[in-house]
Every structure is written in C-alpha cells, then in structure tokens.
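Step 1: inspect the first sequence and its tokens.
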Amino acid sequence: MPGRMMPPERVKPLLVWAAGRLRDAGCETPDLDARLLLQGAAGLSREELILEPDRHLAGEQITAFEAMIARREAREPVSRIRGEREFHGRSFRVTPDTLDPRPDTETLAETALALLPKAGRFLELGAGTGAVAITLLAERPDAYGIATDVSAAALAVTAENAERHGVADRLVLLTGSWFAPVKGVFDLILSNPPYIPAAEIATLSPDVRCFDPRLALDGGADGLDAYRAIAAGAAAHLTPGGHVVVEIGAGQGLEIAAIFVAAGFRLVDQRQDLGGHIRCLAFQRVEN
C-alpha cells in the first residue's frame, strides 16, 4: 500500500506491527492471528517466537509474512492462508473446496466417539476435510468408516488428510448426495450438514461467507433441508439400536429434534459447544 510503514525486521516489533494492522481491519484476534501467520511465513515454532523476540528475519520471510497479513486484512481466515487447521489435536489440510472445521465441531466428534461401539462401523455424511471421520479413526483403531461428500474435490482433501494421519486403509470415500452412494448398515451415522438459512448467508462474517463453500453453508429456506434428508434415510442404514449424531446451529434444537422424532428416532443426548450453545444432538433408532 503506498505510504504504508515498512515492517520491522525483528520478531517482537514485527508482531506488534502486524497485530496493529489486523486490529484496524476489524479482526477479532489480531495478536493470535499475527503469531500464527508469522509461524507459517518464517517456519518458526510458537516457542521460538517467544524465546527469541529480537531474532532478525530474512527479507523473504518478512515479504511472505506481509503478504499473509494483507490477505488476513481482507478477512481471509488464518487457516485458509496457512492451508492448515488444528482440530482435536491434529492438523488438517484446508482448501477452498472444504468447509473450515471449527473448534465447536469437536463437540460432534466427541459425542460420536462416546456412542461408537467397539469395532464399530460409522458413516459420515458431508466429510469436507475429513477432520471428524479421521479423528474417530485415529482415536479408535478398531473402527471402520465410510465418508461421503457431494464434492469430489472435497473428498480429495479428505483422502490426503486420511493418508497424513495413517487411517486411509480404514476409510472408504464415496462421492454423492447424502445416502445416494451408500449401501449397507452402520452403528453410527454422523454429519455436520449445512444449516444456515439461505437468506442469512449474506449476513455472516466475511471470514465465512466469502471463503467457505456455499454448498457447505446453505441449509435451504429454513436451514433444515439437510436434517430432513438425513432423518428420512438414516433408519435404512442403521443397525438395531444405532445412533445418528448431528451438529446444529444455535436455536435449531427443537425443530431438528421434531424432524427426527417424526422419522422414528428418540433424542438421547444433546451437548453444548465452547460458547454454551446446544451444538450437537444424538438420536437413537426406535425399534418396533
């Protein structure tokens, strides 16, 4: 930007300079964002940044960092700039083809882990990066899974992440909408489906509306289309007593519970996210 002050060359003042720019741009966590981006640009660990505040950086490291800061000023998420997102203690590749997995979605993974039986088989609908399915397989070496996504490009990212975490031999990937490509029955079905009402997408933070795939956000007119599809098809793909676990948006719990109850399920668990909102519902198939 013409007239903009040149960035400092040492770690601590460089972080202060970058955080100031991000704060002016309206970023909610400017100090954290600056640190994570500098780690990526300079190839340094968090500990190195803390222990070596006077470290001089090379010109190419500073140039790369300034380019990253400019992208973040335009509200591109840090995980997309770095191409990585931490989820449940593991790092996952993120691309423009995938939803950026949020910390709140760890609630879905934890609920699913609690319900998945020993040597269980699960089905994830809408895999995205594969963060949830891969977390289940990494935590449970006895489990096997199938993950679907309507986007072949997203499933390519899932495949890459599965290889990275050593679970590819226990994860089958299928391209298609909801249950269309799926055969067989499972002990557990889980999904973090699109649940934003279509008319509300324009009101979302630019970090979300401008960078997450619309397919991963748009839940139809009332935000509940995906839940209707999942509830309608789940019983045919569940073992007796099997469970369905879904992530939900704030305030959607009663409506989504009613959809599943009408389809022959009972609500057995609901869990809050880090902000105290009901973020995950678990249902069990009611046997006649």
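Step 2: inspect the second sequence and its tokens, then contrast the two.
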Amino acid sequence: MTTRTVMQEADIARALTRISHEILESNRGADDLVVLGIPTRGVALANRIAGLLGEFAGTTVPTGALDVTMYRDDLHRHPTRAPQPTQIPPAGIDGKTVVLVDDVLFSGRSIRAALDALQDIGRPDAVRLAILIDRGHRELPIRPDFVGKNLPSARDERVNVRLAEVDGLEEVTIES
C-alpha cells in the first residue's frame, strides 16, 4: 500500500479561506447563513468555515451539526457507526441559506441523506454544498458549490482527511 500526502495544514487553511470568501461572495454577505457540518470531520470544517465567515463579515454565523446516519440508503453495505447528535442553531433553518459541509465527496450518498435529514428539520430558502475534497465517482446527480481541492482518484483508492480537532494532525492523504 502506497500513501502520499496531497494537502498539508497550510493547504487546508488556504482552501477553507477561499471557500469562505466564495460563500460570502455567492451569498452577498453573511445574512441568513447557517453552516451545518456532517459528522465527523464535516463538523470541524463547518466550525472553521463559520469562524472565517464571521471574521470576514464582522458577524457571528450560526453553525451546527447534521447527522445523516439513519437517512443513508447504503447502511446494508457499510458498517453502521453510532449516530452523532444533530445540533441546529436556535433560530433554525427556515428561510435561511444552509451551507452543508463535509470532508470528502465521493458517491454523493451522504449528501442525499443530508438533504433528506434537512427536510425533517425545516425549510431553508437554499442549500449549498461545501466540500474539502471532491474525488469524483458520483453515483447521484450531486455537485458541490464550493470545493477545496478536486482530487481525481481510482475507485479502489482511499482518501483520508485528518483534522487536528479529531485526529490530532492536519493532512489529506491518498492510499493506493
């Protein structure tokens, strides 16, 4: 097995800064934004993006977590993990622009599950998708609005995102 590092701490920071600026430009500011991360690493990324948005816009951007475990349609193929808490900001998501954040976009099934989960919580005006790594191989017609890095990969390769909040180090690697 070969492992190569494709992003280091500074690369991840740059990507998140660029994504945050793109979100503000697309939304014309931070008004009515809510940033929701998909556990586990999507939550850490969402918190970082919300912090950057707040810093750049001079306001606080509500953030939270959206667990999609029980909404997945592929639970029979993948070992289940314990559901994580869903945490929605007190003002909710109705009438807001929700930015979903995840670490890696692969088949699109996690995002489809997230869209189903959002329907049970409220009715946002718009949903946008921010992804640190887009590796291709989509099985569903889902496309991210904001991408940190496009990383074409083979189906049998594994992309690993490690973040300080979860793993104690910062890197993106690809194993073949």
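Step 3: confirm your contrast with the notes below.
The chain has four helices and eight strands. The CA atoms of residues 44 and 165 lie 7 Å apart.
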